[in-house]
Write a structure and sequence with these properties.
The protein is an alpha+beta fold. The protein has ten helices and eight strands. The chain folds into three domains: 100 residues, Acyl-CoA dehydrogenase/oxidase, N-terminal domain (Butyryl-Coa Dehydrogenase, subunit A, domain 1); 105 residues, Butyryl-CoA Dehydrogenase, subunit A, domain 2; 148 residues, Butyryl-CoA Dehydrogenase, subunit A, domain 3, CATH 1.20.140.10. Strands 1, 2, 3, 4, 5, 6, 7 and 8 form an eight-stranded mixed beta sheet that branches. It binds flavin-adenine dinucleotide.
């Protein structure tokens, strides 16, 4: 992919992460790559320098995830640990919380998961019922979450709840750091049809007692704090999808140049070449929107970044699903073999279409916010 609209430091970061990812390659060991990327400063490029980060933003962090994915070594927990949790703590945490968490999130020695989705709320986050009640020592949390990634490998989970004073109505979100082994914090592994190292969990919060300083930010700040984390999540999901799409496409193009069953390699047939070219164009376009979203977010324009991050996530997920499908088909029977490793991406690519916000919810957002059409739900 040509990258010349980027500043030189970004191109260099891309090349360095790409080299690291390719050294590990497909079939990589997640924990080893995570530790190495952390040590090299890549996991914390977006976090403030005074807490061990690189002092950059989402522009840099999205490059790291995209390039790792394009090399066949995606690090899903980057979407949550440095991007959501690191950002929320850096922007709204107390000095003690920043000192306690950011250096570890930056160098990868600590990881934080993020739990917002609930079984009875799903796409409608306003319906979440995980409730925090104030006690003399701090808080008690009760509720359930579902599909939360990486809880088993994370030191803590940033849990989105609401206070008991704001139990109903539009969500006034408040965010709590729940350490993995806190009594009452249960998890059940959900078996997914995904060939990924990171697992998903259903969580039960059953009278989980937390100290007062488990609350990150203001209990009354509402959605502002939450969106400070959710926009990075969307930008990073776009990076994840673009990386995966590029990985699949690179394999398919190489195969199409070599494989010959008539007079010329199959890549000479336009029925093979054009879908590959289309996939390439759509991934490039998605990346442009991701860069726009990252630029707006890093400039502090949360509102502008919201629209762009939604559009980038949408475009990247669609481009990824199509690139993977096209690539699998290009390899014929080999597209479905374990040896070539592309078929397993078919389900992985769909994750970006449904999470963290589904294709339809983005279309709803664009219909109502960008186009001013009436809301149907
Ligand atoms: C691999 C994976 C990892 C995940 N990791 C995390 C995580 O770490 N933390 C976390 O909190 N969550 C996580 N999630 C959850 C994810 O964010 C949710 O699955 C997603 O938000 C959709 O919610 P749902 O599954 O309840 O679908 P539902 O909300 O039940 O939606 C089902 C379908 O209905 C459509 N739909 C719903 N409402 C509307 C409407 N108004 N108009 C049109 N269509 C509509 C949706 O688009 C979707 O196609 C993960 C999910 C997956 C698959």
């Amino acid at each position: 992919m040509s990258t010349d609209i980027e500043p030189r430091e970004h191109t260099e970061l891309r090349a360095a992460v790409s080299a690291l990812g390719r050294r590990h390659g497909a079939g990589f060991d997640r924990a080893t790559l995570w530790a190495e990327a952390g040590k090299l400063g890549y996991l914390g490029v977006n976090l403030p320098e005074e807490y061990g980060g690189g002092g950059g933003g989402m522009a840099e962090l999205s490059i790291v995830l995209e390039e790792a994915g394009a090399a066949g070594a995606p690090l899903l927990m980057m979407v949550v640990s440095p991007a959501i949790c690191g950002t929320v703590i850096a922007r709204f945490g107390t000095e003690e919380q920043k000192r306690a968490w950011l250096p570890g999130l930056a160098d990868g020695t600590r990881t934080m998961a993020f739990g917002i989705t609930e079984p009875d709320a799903g796409s409608n986050s306003h319906r979440i019922t995980t409730t925090a009640t104030r006690t003399e020592e701090g808080w008690v949390l009760n509720g359930r979450k579902v599909f939360v990634s990486g809880v088993d490998i994370a030191d803590a989970t940033l849990v989105v709840g609401r206070t008991s004073d704001a139990r109903t109505g539009n969500l006034k979100a408040c965010l709590f750091i729940v350490p993995r082994d806190t009594p009452g914090f249960g998890r059940r592994h959900i078996e997914m049809e995904l060939a990924a190292d990171e697992k998903q969990f259903e969580l039960t919060l059953d009278d989980v007692h937390l100290p007062a300083d488990a609350l990150v930010g203001d209990e009354d700040a509402g959605l502002l704090q939450l969106f400070a984390g959710l926009n990075p999540e969307r930008i990073m999901t776009a990076a994840f999808a673009i990386g995966m799409g590029r990985y699949a496409l690179e394999r398919a193009v190489a195969y199409a140049k070599e494989r010959q069953v008539w007079k010329a390699p199959i890549g000479a047939h336009q029925a093979i070449a054009h879908p590959l070219a289309q996939a390439h164009i759509e991934l490039e376009l998605a990346r442009l929107m991701m860069q726009k979203a990252a630029k707006l977010y890093d400039a502090g324009d949360d509102l502008g970044a919201g629209e762009a991050a939604n559009m980038a996530k949408y475009a990247a997920a669609e481009a990824c699903v199509k690139a993977v499908d096209t690539s699998v088909h290009t390899l014929g029977g080999n597209g479905l073999t374990k040896e070539f490793g592309l078929a397993r991406l078919i389900t992985a690519a769909r994750v970006a279409r449904i999470a963290p916000v589904s294709r339809e919810m983005i279309l709803n957002y664009v219909s109502t916010h960008s186009l001013g059409l009436p809301k149907s739900y």
